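Help needed: design a sequence for this.
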């Protein structure tokens, strides 16, 4: 028997359009399978099928405006019997249009056997993958995955209850980016119509690499969704630099770079200021009791973040070695997904590039803070009696103002500066 699948009540939004269609004519769908994606001016939501059966006709196309009871599709019941309408109504209660923020705090998967009690329910954060297992991901994550051509079934979600996070998708996309061509990826930048520049003079164009496309989408999202504040400071690294040179002169097996010291010092300060080693989940703060530190690596293909795990359990020599190894792998395009996952806090060093003064590093979501480091220079510093030459390192710490207040950021920055100025502080 054929059923007309009508748009259920999805939460009262009057301006809805079809953003994506997941099925095609001839597909077999089950009640609850994601059928299409709806978009309002505030959020996106996946609409599950109200019926079991074969899709005979799809009555909408991408971009169509729809409203309550708009015909979506004709579905022929596989058993030849009509679908149970009461079941359909119960299901439809589960498809309320919610904002991304609301979505984040609703990690429960919906399955056919689980009837949701509440009326303000998440729409489907789950979907059945082509391999048959259920994957859990919010609509915007699935949208990102589709744009990046990533199969969510290949990801073991690192989020709560195995949910797939943006971090997971990006890590897999970056791994794929190092091994495959750029043709499969769709740019995720919002394309704004540009003037025809060639009217004004000669131009040439170049495609962004896959990594640049991925970074571009991720950075845009981080910048647009996190209220950034950047605290500037200096660290007097005169003694640190002398010690570093001494270490490097004593042996040649390991190169002790400033970055290794920075990572160690950050780990020390993160332990004192747990809010910097956290993530924000709706109205909840997730504190991490492990200390994985990411560092940005500039490669020919674009910017990557490699992650040193459990820095609190590692000595300077080990950290220096891992920095060198991971940076080399990044430049060869050989970082694995796990080399890029699980970072709690990122260090972005432009010190080797002659970067003067401070800059504003973009927080690497879902982290809540990042350290940017510029090139140290010898400066006349007043020591209370006279001006003395000191090697001063510019520090720029961007933090998420939703979770970190300015007073705390000032203390964190000061503690980091002190740790670098006198490494003995790390021992305290
Ligand atoms: N001040 C002065 N000199 C510095 C310095 C600083 N803050 N940081 C590094 N240097 C010097 C080093 O001492 C080294 O000189 P020596 O060989 O004489 O010791 C030289 O610069 C090169 O350092 P390096 O590159 O070998 O090592 P590193 O640890 O500083 O950096 C890495 C490694 C992978 C982080 C870096 O190469 C890199 O890719 N940085 C890019 C980061 C980036 O692009 N961030 C994004 C910013 S926002 O888009």
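Sure. Designed sequence:
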């Amino acid at each position: 028997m054929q059923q007309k699948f009508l748009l259920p009540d999805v939460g009262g939004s009057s301006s809805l359009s079809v953003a994506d269609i997941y099925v095609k004519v001839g597909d077999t769908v089950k009640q609850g399978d994601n059928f299409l994606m709806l978009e309002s001016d505030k959020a996106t939501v996946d609409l599950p099928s109200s019926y079991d059966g074969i899709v005979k006709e799809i009555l909408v196309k991408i971009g169509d405006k729809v409203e309550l009871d708009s015909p979506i599709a004709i579905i022929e019941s596989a058993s030849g019997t009509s679908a149970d309408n009461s079941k359909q109504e119960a299901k439809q209660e589960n498809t309320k249009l919610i904002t991304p923020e609301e979505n984040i705090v609703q990690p429960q998967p919906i399955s056919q056997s689980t009837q949701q009690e509440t009326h303000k329910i998440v729409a489907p954060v789950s979907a059945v993958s082509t391999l048959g297992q259920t994957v859990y991901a919010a609509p915007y994550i699935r949208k990102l995955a589709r744009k990046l051509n990533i199969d969510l079934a290949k990801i073991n979600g690192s989020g709560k209850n195995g949910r797939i996070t943006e971090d997971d998708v990006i890590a897999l996309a970056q791994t794929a980016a190092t091994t495959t061509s750029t043709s499969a990826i769709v740019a995720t930048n919002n394309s704004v119509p540009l003037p025809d520049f060639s009217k004004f003079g000669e131009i040439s164009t170049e495609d962004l690499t896959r990594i640049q496309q991925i970074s571009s989408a991720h950075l845009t999202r981080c910048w647009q969704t996190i209220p950034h504040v950047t605290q500037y400071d200096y660290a007097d690294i005169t003694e640190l630099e002398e010690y570093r040179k001494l270490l490097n002169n004593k042996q040649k097996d390991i190169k002790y770079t400033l970055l290794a010291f920075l990572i160690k010092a950050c780990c020390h300060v993160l332990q004192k200021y747990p809010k910097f080693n956290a993530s924000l989940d709706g109205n909840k703060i997730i504190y991490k009791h492990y200390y994985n530190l990411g560092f940005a690596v500039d490669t020919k293909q674009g910017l990557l973040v490699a992650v040193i795990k459990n820095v609190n359990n590692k000595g300077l020599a080990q950290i220096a070695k891992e920095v060198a190894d991971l940076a080399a792998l990044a430049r060869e395009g050989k970082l694995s997904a796990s080399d890029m996952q699980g970072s709690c806090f990122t260090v972005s060093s432009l010190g080797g590039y002659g970067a003067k003064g401070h800059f504003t590093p973009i927080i690497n979501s879902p982290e809540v803070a990042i350290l940017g480091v510029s090139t140290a220079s010898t400066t006349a510093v007043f020591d209370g009696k006279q001006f003395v030459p000191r090697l001063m390192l510019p520090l720029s710490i961007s933090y998420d103002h939703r979770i970190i207040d300015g007073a705390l950021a000032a203390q964190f920055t000061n503690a980091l500066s002190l740790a670098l100025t006198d490494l003995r502080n790390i021992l305290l």
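Residues 209 and 301 are 6 Å apart (CA to CA).
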